[in-house]
What does this fold into?
Amino acid sequence: MGRKRTTNIHLPRNMQRKGNTYYFVKDNVWINLGHDYPGALIAYSGLVGERKGVKTFADVAHEMLETRTADLAPATLALYAYNAKRVLPVFGHMKLEEIKQSHVYRYVHTRDGNAMSNRDRTFMSAVFTYARNAGRFDGTDPTKGLQYRRKESPVERYLGDDELRMVLAAAKPHIAAAIVVLYLIGCRIRDGLDIRVEHVGDDVLTYWNRKAKKWMDVEITPALRQAIDNVLALGRQVGREFLIERLATNSRRAGPYTYAGFRTQWMNALAAAGIESATLHDIRRKAGSDVETDDLAMQLLGHTSTKVTRRHYRAKKTPIKPTK
It folds into this structure.
């Protein structure tokens, strides 16, 4: 029997991480699974097939991550992997029926980070739901009846017009052009990076909204047309697949950006502009804040109601009018 893990305990059996690369390791044979954790899980599941002898919360959590790689968004898988790092050291050794509502309450109540504690509970709920659906567990999900949630303050960071101009001036030209397109469309960054050239028509730009699971049609206004033309003018002109692409270098071909790669470019531009505490998500929040009404913001952002729009995306402050 192998030694018990002391690091990377969120990884399933026989998976190891060395540097930035994940490996499947068995009988002294190391099989490269890639650098991306969700992608590594897909490759891992193809090697091990169905897991047997599930007993603990950690076993079921690993099985869920391996099994659901096809129907969960990469961002969700990445978040669940981070949740696993926090949750498994506490609950991983326990059988599912041993985890009680009081245990979950104590964890959520005392764990560091209000928002992430709530996300940890969501991850645990997903594990229990999978366990019931897969026939691994027929008891009561201790996360469901818990009438408690850590208070989360809505993020109110608004990227001002002057700040945006400073970022655009400091960014590489093709990154600056891409930021303008993402701002005008108001889409999530990952969705914007997936837009292909073929999705850009004469009058409408279409992109896939992963979270809502629907295609979004955005009218191409003169401003958006100019922004699109600026993006397409930079980079390869032949064989281009994606609207937003990284430029070719001596060591790397042109091609689509990963979220992490584009975020690095964004952070470099922020640093050069001397702007602190702004995230890529602030581009979308600015888009939702700069349209005139909540209803227009809801339509632009692809929300089904104005509740989330008002709480998280209407961050622009309206000055109070003085007494006449």
